[in-house]
Design goal:
Blueprint lengths: L5 E7 H17 L3 E7 L8 H11 L8 E6 L1 H13 L5 E6 L2 H7 L4 E6 L2 E8 L4 E2 L11 H18 L1 H9 L1 H5 L3 H21 L14 H10 L7 H18 L5 H13 L15 H9 L11 E6 L2 E5 L4 H11 L1
Parallel strand pairs: 1-2, 1-3, 3-4, 4-7
Antiparallel strand pairs: 5-6, 8-9
Helix pairs in contact: 2-3, 3-4, 4-5, 4-8, 5-6, 5-8, 5-10, 9-10, 9-12, 10-11, 10-13, 12-13
The protein binds nicotinamide-adenine-dinucleotide and zinc ion (ZN).
Nicotinamide-adenine-dinucleotide (NAD) binds next to helix 1, helix 3, helix 4 and helix 5.
Length: 332
């Protein structure tokens, strides 16, 4: 940290009480000036009102050469990064992700923004933090639901990356669920490393970055059809991965052995592979309709990332509706 700068620490109230207050105290003891800015926790507050309130809170306290530090989950990171990127036309920011999802996904890749009544993440920018700092020890205070919510992206990345990452997960479930710092660090590092490798090739999401969407065409449709209320993103991604495995096997792309290994990994991590496990029932036709509206789709073609093997994703845009309905029947 640069002593001549003032640091504006943005957190939701939960994370502020747990960590940010202590960090600010430490900084002040070292002679670094730091202020706390907070907002109430929850996805519902990732909106333009909170954005404006934070802009007002920091105005007059931070100048163009100062820096914002986002400490918290994905909501805080997306919101605080967007505030930093627009305050006085943009000041520096640092991400300190504290939820598993923020550590492995949202703090890296440069997508920032808020939800509006038109849609989720509808307003935002691409911009990167100066530093992303991850301390797996803070996972100890994270609830089981929020820990589990990050698992979807980790297993997705293992499927994209291949045998080595799948084996690491197969062999370390106990230590990972016990939140042992060393194994958490290794798994988080592998997930982030993979994301960086892909984002560096296609920062603005026009081509290869779409493979990070594995399982997400289905997951987004499910989240919209359930009003983002009943199902966590991790659960939705898990079901989306089951759908992709099913469709890939059905099309003759993925071998029965690899398909079984993938399904077993989801089971091992207590992730759902059938919607009925969550006591939810939805008609496949409605699902298909929703998948067609996905923002990644050009024209009316459905773009889906499939697997030719673990570690071998392929982007497909010529899957028929019948093939999709057949795969949906195995997951819904
Ligand atoms: N920018 C991107 O590329 C990207 C990618 C994926 C998801 N996202 C966004 O991320 C958001 C979801 O992130 P999230 O699941 O982290 O939500 P979140 O920020 O709401 O955090 C979940 C909950 O955990 C609490 N929390 C966080 N860290 C904690 C800790 N160490 N101990 C105790 N409690 C803690 C928070 O207070 C909150 O209540 C969504 O808005 C989503 O759109 C963005
Ligand atoms: Zn996701």
């Amino acid at each position: 940290l640069i002593p001549s700068r003032t640091y504006g620490i943005i957190s939701d109230l939960t994370v502020s009480k747990l960590y940010s207050q202590k960090i600010i105290q430490n900084l002040q003891e070292k002679g670094i000036s730091a202020f706390s800015f907070t907002f109430p926790p929850g996805e519902i507050n990732k909106n333009l009102e909170t954005f404006s309130s934070l802009q007002e809170q920091i105005s007059g306290k931070l100048s163009r050469s100062d820096c914002i530090i986002a400490i918290g989950g994905g909501v805080t990171g997306d919101l605080a990064g967007f505030v930093a990127s627009t305050y006085m036309r943009g000041i520096s920011f640092i991400q300190i992700p504290t939820s598993l999802l923020a550590m492995v996904d949202s703090s890296v890749g440069g997508k920032l923004g808020v939800n509006t009544h038109i849609g989720k993440n509808f307003v935002g920018v691409f911009n990167h933090p100066e530093i992303v700092l991850i301390d797996p020890n803070v996972l100890k205070t994270l609830s089981w639901e929020d820990f589990h919510a990050g698992m979807g992206e980790i297993i997705k990345t293992a499927f994209l990356s291949g045998d080595g990452f799948c084996t690491l997960l197969e062999q370390n479930k106990r230590a990972f669920f016990a939140k042992k710092a060393e194994i958490c660090a290794e798994i988080i590092h592998k997930t982030v490393e993979y994301k960086i490798k892909i984002v560096e090739q296609d920062e603005y999401d026009h081509a290869i970055r779409q493979i990070l969407n594995l399982g997400h065409t289905f997951a987004h449709a499910l989240e919209i059809l359930t009003d983002y209320k009943t199902i966590s993103h991790g659960m939705a991604v898990s079901l989306g991965l089951s759908f992709v495995i099913q469709l890939s096997e059905q099309l003759g792309l993925l071998s029965a052995d690899s398909s079984l290994r993938a399904k077993n990994l989801l089971n091992l991590y207590e992730m759902p592979n059938h919607l009925s496990q969550l006591q939810i029932h939805l008609p496949p036709e409605k699902f298909l309709q929703q998948m067609k509206y996905d923002k990644k789709n050009r024209s009316s073609k459905i773009i889906i990332v499939l697997l030719e093997d673990l570690g071998k994703p392929v982007i497909h845009d010529n899957i028929t509706e019948e093939q999709i309905l057949e795969a949906l029947a195995h997951v819904l």
